[in-house]
Amino acid sequence: MPRSSQSRSSQSRSSQSRSRLSPAQTTALSAAALTAAAVLIARLRPAATAGELRDAALRLLEVGLPSRRRFAVELWDGTTLPATTGEDARLRLNSPKTLGRMLRLPLDVALGEAYIRGDFDIEGDFSAVVELADTFDAAPGLKAVPGLMRDYERLRRGAGAPPPAPKASLEGETHSRERDKAAISHHYDVSNDFYKLWLDERMVYSCGYFPSGEETLDEAQAAKLELICRKLRLKSGEKLLDIGCGWGGLAIYAAQHYGVSVTGVTLSEAQLQEGKARVTAAGLDHLVSLELRDYRDVEGPFDKISSIGMAEHVGRKNMAEYFATAQRVLKPGGLMLNHAIASGLGQAKVSNLLQSGNFARRYVFPDGELLPIWETQKFAEEALFEVRDVENLREHYAQTTRHWARNLEAHQTAALEFLGEERYRLWRIYLNACVYYFSAGHLSIFQTLLAKPDEQRRVTLPPSRADLYR
């Protein structure tokens, strides 16, 4: 065969090979075509009746719910899909529009918004429902996909456009001084009386410490404050900077029990007002000064620094400046305790393509950002801090948020007066979801002890940490 003919023949075979689809590709394209046709047909049909919406919801739920689940699902007309491993909770869909609103993308935002609006309720153990993200095991066959998509489209059309939920609305550049103050105000200036309903007596809004597991919330928060003071090796006469001082719980405790002078800074005017009143009531105005001040504007020097539950508001963009500021105002040989929530283990069963992880940032902590612990330590070390100790307290935070959620629910009537229905529901789902996320390791909380070595690169710490847990 002439060379030119061989070349054309080879090119022809190569072209045919490239155009030939694998069985998997053919199957995927067939499914996509069937799905598109099913959706088009569903859109051309008249509006579904209440009975058709119920039947579509049942078909989707029977396929999509985990095969092993601790919760029952009750539809708006009383039709119930029972739990399969004992009923610890009941998910009530309150309207034919509910499921169509819940199954929008991203799923985490759609589900949270649907709960805020009252589209569904959860009775019993919230974790039994929230763990759906980990127990999801649906695997419908190819032939079932077009029918499921028709049902989904029918429910979506029947739901219509959902009304907006009350999310935060901030202006300006993310993590600018003005926007940071607005973000803090959105979360913390809700009402001091609201927080008093479910926090401990000191109003400590961070992870408690339950060394035996049997402590009350008040005892656990006192134990946490004591642990912080021990880790910082506080001594009478020292100057402590408390970044993000909240309502003054740590500042007051450290002054009372260790005789240190404390400067606390916050961006929340409501916290500052309450905190100052508590300092005065404790007779500690000579030792504790609380200020409305951005952490970037603090002037030192200080012997020790605490930052408890504040770094989550700093953001990756400003983390280098955050640690550089702390390094600048801390005396050589000083210690800093950074106590912050961190991202944890990823959810294994629901694809990240279906969820954004932005529900809390939209509705609870605007502009909040959780970094993995390794990245936080990297920023600290780049600011010339030495990492001396790291402790994970996530199980303690699961127990803390469980106390908070129960306290909030026990004071529902008062909470509704302060917040209204939608914002009460927002806090209820947020706190209860946190119980599961910390329990399952999707969120973590770390206390990191950092040191600023002196000119000879020395840090005065005992050779053992045993005394911290005496």
Structural write-up:
With about 475 residues, this protein is an alpha/beta fold. The chain folds into two domains: about 25-160, no CATH class; about 175-470, Rossmann fold (3-Layer(aba) Sandwich), CATH 3.40.50. About 45% of the residues lie in helices and about 15% in strands. It is built from 19 helices and eleven strands. It has helices at about 5-20, 25-45, 50-65, 100, 105-115, 125-130, 130-135, 145-160, 175-190, 190-200, 215-230, 250-260, 270-280, 320-330, 360-365, 375-380, 395-410, 410-420, 420-440; strands at about 70-75, 80, 90-95, 120-125, 240-245, 260-265, 290, 300-310, 330-345, 385-390, 445-450. It has a seven-stranded mixed beta sheet with strand order 7-6-5-8-9-11-10. Residues about 1-20 have low confidence and may be disordered.
Keywords:
470 residues, alpha/beta, Rossmann fold, 2 domains, seven-stranded mixed sheet, four-stranded mixed sheet, 47% helix, elongated, disordered N terminus, S-adenosyl-L-methionine
Short description:
Residues 1-24, 156-178 are annotated as: Disordered. This is Cyclopropane-fatty-acyl-phospholipid synthase family protein. This protein is an alpha/beta fold.
The portion of residues forming beta strands comes to: 5-15%
Report how far the terminal alpha carbons are from each other. 91 Å
Query: What's the CATH topology label of the largest domain?
Result: Rossmann fold
- What is the H/E order? HHHEEEHHEHHHHHHEHEHEEHEHHEHHHE
The CATH fourth-level homologous superfamily of the largest domain: Vaccinia Virus protein VP39
3D shape: elongated
The low-confidence runs, each spanning 5 or more residues with pLDDT under 50, are: 1-19
Major sheet summary line: 7 strands, mixed
CATH class of the largest domain: Alpha Beta
Protein name: Cyclopropane-fatty-acyl-phospholipid synthase family protein
Family: Belongs to the CFA/CMAS family.
Region (Disordered): 1-24, 156-178
Keywords: Lipid metabolism, Methyltransferase, S-adenosyl-L-methionine, Transferase
